[in-house]
Automatic annotation (TrEMBL):
It comes from the Bacteria. Coiled coil: none annotated. Residues 8-84 form the GST N-terminal domain. This is Beta-aryl ether-cleaving protein. The lineage of its organism: Bacteria, Pseudomonadati, Pseudomonadota, Alphaproteobacteria, Hyphomicrobiales. Gene3D superfamilies: 1.20.1050.10, Glutaredoxin. It comes from Sinorhizobium saheli. Pfam families: GST_C_7 (PF22041), GST_N_2 (PF13409).
């Protein structure tokens, strides 16, 4: 059985950039489950699988469709319990929920402002129009103004990583000696920035940079299969 993962891409279909898709790609690899990636554009998402979702990732596993990266991870854990665990029990699930909240409330908004024009410029014209309209409605100002505010985020981004930096002083991964889904959550955010933007958010010699390099090497270097912008 071939699993199909629908992944958000721009004009270059070989460079899926969604942070949530990257969580799922590493989750599937963690479980040792083969899958094929089907790239989709923003405006194509509502047409997927007869309107099955408004978001990606969307995973087709046989006759099962699952969307949302956390729900997909829960599904994989329940459906393939004999494969390596993504959570290592209830505590790991609770930790992942906390990490997801921190990542999406702290890292994602900053990366979104820093990279907003980079994302726009990598899209087809029809998707650029959608992206501009939807993001300007979300932010309440033009994309260019959002990008300008992203300059301040560049200066403060390293400080936002301090909780992760502290934890990595004691262990190589958030999951301990090896990665769990919590690692993939934060990796997905930083991989998003790495793929779409030429701004470098991590400094050499930082424990977070070392952790990110370890994550890029996981599962046969899956994270390195797409080069940095």
């Amino acid at each position: 059985m071939t699993r199909k993962l629908y992944a958000l891409s721009g004009t270059d279909k070989t460079r899926p950039f969604s942070p949530h898709v990257w969580k799922t790609k590493l989750s599937l690899a963690h479980k040792g489950l083969p899958f094929d990636v089907t790239p989709v554009a923003f405006t194509e998402i509502p047409k997927l699988e007869e309107g099955a979702t408004k978001i990606v990732p969307l995973l087709r596993d046989g006759d099962k469709l699952v969307s949302d990266s956390f729900d997909i991870a829960l599904y994989l854990e329940k459906t393939y319990p004999d494969r390596p665990t993504l959570f290592a029990g209830e505590g790991g699930r609770a930790m992942a929920r906390f990490v997801e909240g921190w990542s999406q409330m702290t890292l994602h908004p900053a990366i979104g402002r820093i990279a907003i024009m980079d994302i726009h410029d990598r899209l087809e014209p029809v998707d650029q129009a959608y992206f501009r309209s939807s993001r300007e409605q979300r932010f309440g100002r033009p994309l260019e103004a959002v990008a300008e505010s992203g300059r301040a985020d560049l200066e403060t981004f390293s400080a936002k990583l301090e909780p992760l930096r502290h934890m990595l002083k004691f262990q190589p991964f958030l999951g301990g000696d090896g990665p769990l889904f919590a690692d993939y959550i934060v990796f997905g955010a930083l991989q998003w920035a790495r793929i779409v933007s030429t701004h470098r958010l991590l400094a050499a010699g930082d424990v977070v940079s070392d952790w990110f390099e370890r994550c890029l090497d996981l599962h046969g270097g899956l994270g390195r299969s797409v080069t940095a912008a």
